[in-house]
Automatic annotation (TrEMBL):
The lineage of its organism: Eukaryota, Metazoa, Chordata, Craniata, Vertebrata. One of its GO terms (biological process) is RNA methylation. It comes from the Eukaryota. The keyword Nucleus does not apply. This is SAM-dependent MTase RsmB/NOP-type domain-containing protein. It comes from Sphaeramia orbicularis (orbiculate cardinalfish). The gene is nsun6. Keywords: Methyltransferase, RNA-binding, S-adenosyl-L-methionine, Transferase.
Amino acid sequence: MPIFPRISLKPEVCDHLKSIFLNKELLAAVGHQEAESRFQRLLMCLSHPPSYTCVRASTHLAPLEDIRQKLGEELKRQQQQMCSSSPEDVYAQILPHPHIPDVLLLPVDGPRPVQQLSSEVVVGAQCGNAVLRGAHVFAPGIIASPKYMKAGDLVSVFSDTEGKCTRGATSFQGLKVFVGNGVAEMDRSSIFCTDEPKKGIGVRMTEPLYQSPSFDGVLPSLAFLQNLPSVVVGHVLGPRPGERVLDMCAAPGGKTCHIAALMGDQGEVVALDRIRNKIDRIGQNAQMLHLHSIKVYCFNSTQAVSSDPSQDSEGPPFPPESFDRVLLDAPCSGLGQRPNMASTWSLKEICSYQPLQRKLIQAAVRLLRKGGVLVYSTCTVTLAENEEQVAWALRTFPCLTLQPQEPHIGAEGMLGAGLSPEQLRLLQRFSPELNWDQTESAVPLPHRANTDTIGFFIAKFLKH
């Protein structure tokens, strides 16, 4: 049941998206009414969280069933500490994915009938999105609170979807969305009246609108929170022990670590990212997951190909044809992320990624050896960043051909970029709007998980 308004977008961005989802190819195939309906469902489902939490289990460290059992015990302990009256057996609710051997699924309970309180805390849109996926409210996310709020007060938490609330305000009458109730962990004065930004939990959520487990500190080396399509990417890449693999835009390192785990930590995984503090996060994740085959460099991947073939240094730039497999999880407009109640981006920002993605694809093709595999992925829904990039890559690099993907649990590629039906079938587009009407029905969780995802795109190429 939709309980939030559609995602809030700037009018020109909304019109641009509509023109994509009502393109001539698509209209000819499904008709105006169905195309319009899909677009409206997309706007609606983007503001809502998926109906489950996806956990990638570290099966390189322990069997899936052992991790499932430990996770059940840990979450039950968490429930008891929160004095939750929930009678369900947590372990029984943790389900293995039917097709992906290292994924566990946990149902999200919501929307729940939660009564709003008179005492209101307002948080930023990003913080509100995190609360809908099981997080508590951390102090930096709080924008407004009651004038005399003390630690221990019961408060209702609202998300400022348009970013118009003034920091430090005592109330806010603008557009806001209720996300649940909690207990203040700090006084108002300690949040707003300090020189240093306050850290730690500001509001501990006790009655979230969508109930899902908080994974803060829960089995950090065995259970890694990751969206289902992001886990699929690692399997589609198919890395093997002993290979040399490049992850071009690697931060925060979830996919990098998955690649190393799939290789049994045998071989070399090179992770590049151009932002220094993000690079540190990759190293921390690798350490936490006991992975030693990962080498991390702060480097701009568009410049990762060396012009000097005799160069023999360990780090970037690398000689052409240095890698067996390359993952390009490209920087993108991120319009597939869920839940996302609002995007303040301009059309110029939304459309700015295509040239960068093409530079990265060019570098990826040069760095890949003949017979090697390139996987290109994004977490967005536009044609320009997805199917159009595939069409451009196939035209520009005759050495590339599209390959079947395993597992293929998403939909095929979207019409509108001039690709053939055979080519579209080889692509994998996770399109939550296609089945949005069915997510509330009696479809069992493991099967619902494949359709009720974030918006995501995957293409797999072989270099001849």
